[in-house]
Amino acid sequence: MTDSHALRSMTPMLVGAGALAVAGLVAFTWAARTSAPQPVEGALQVAVTETACAPMALTVPAGPASFVIRNDSSRPLEWEILDGVMVVAERENIAPGFTATLTERLKPGTYQITCGLLSNPRGTLTVTATAASEAARTAPPVAEFIGPLSEMQVRLIQAGAALERDTRALAEAVASGDLASARAAYVTARADWARLGTATGRASDLVNRMSPTAAVLARREDDPGFTGFHRIEHGLWSKGSTEGLEPVARSLAEDATALRARLRGITLAPADIAADAARLARHLAEGQVRQGVNLYSGEDAAEFAAALDAVAGAAQVLSPLTTAAAPDAAAGVEAEIARTRTAIEAMSSDPSPAARERVAEGFTALAGALDALNPALGLEA
């Protein structure tokens, strides 16, 4: 298993404006190569402009639903389906002028859809009940999953405690004005954040405060909404100073405390364990790996290794069930975890676009392998 703390001394490869330019080029190149979706029969067409979605209201029956999202704005965007503060599904890194397809199995209810910038109004998605969805809703719980669900809950609470502790340490380092210590504390706290990747989609309000990127804000780095991790990262690396960051770091630590408290009350269904892990792997592959996540420091390899730990942890929780019910599917997941870990280790010394591509391919294949677990366990709705 990769020791993320051993990677703190990794020399940043992408700094400041140069990092932004390279990341933007990688993101656009990938989007141009992959954004043309295969036709999906019955898919709903959604266009995202500078200020809204067209249409702003959608209706689909429960079950598998496909959407073709076209970016008619001037910036790369991500499109999300939200249930309150929980991200149900998302498609990242859609370049201007391109389209992407999202297919997700949806339960009955009323959801929100994001429409570009965080400050833009959200649309609505109504999912109507069907006979099949009603049958699934009334199905009895699966007793065999009590153990895995409890273990997953403990893992998330422990990860939340680590994030709370290490964001406090980051705030103290920033307050002391010790740039080197603050940078090291940032890398440690970001790894904690990545290990919570299977759960942060359930707290999009906190995520939008703790880890917004400048790209989704109207005024980018000068936007008042540029808070949390990346605001601190921008100061520590691009400006080379802790000046003005203490209140930002204190607020980040307070949000980490709020996230830890929320994790204690999280309710997981049996199908969520594999589905959340697959969603995280796909999220990384489609956006963060190729375009970069820590654009000012270049400290990405440790974070991707920690995110892989989160995915591997979910697979480990399910392992007693999957190895018995579907040994080939379980072995496929383990093989893709190992392949992706090897690619991340290589990327730590070679953060080139080609190396990032191999990591992204690993996470994509891993997401596909995880997708096979729920059907194999009889959890497909």
TrEMBL record:
Superkingdom of source: Bacteria
Cellular localization per UniProt: Periplasm
InterPro entries per record: Cupredoxin (IPR008972), EfeM/EfeO_iron_uptake (IPR050894), EfeO_Cupredoxin (IPR028096), Imelysin-like (IPR018976), Imelysin-like_EfeO/Algp7 (IPR034981), Imelysin_sf (IPR038352), Iron_uptake_EfeM/EfeO (IPR053377)
Primary location: periplasm
Pfam families per the UniProt record, alphabetical: Cupredoxin_1, Peptidase_M75
A single GO cellular-component term on record: periplasmic space
UniProt keywords, alphabetically: Signal
Domain EfeO-type cupredoxin-like: 25-127
Domain Imelysin-like: 156-369
Family: Belongs to the EfeM/EfeO family.
PANTHER family, per database record: IRON UPTAKE SYSTEM COMPONENT EFEO
Protein name: Iron transporter substrate-binding protein
Species annotation: Paracoccus salipaludis
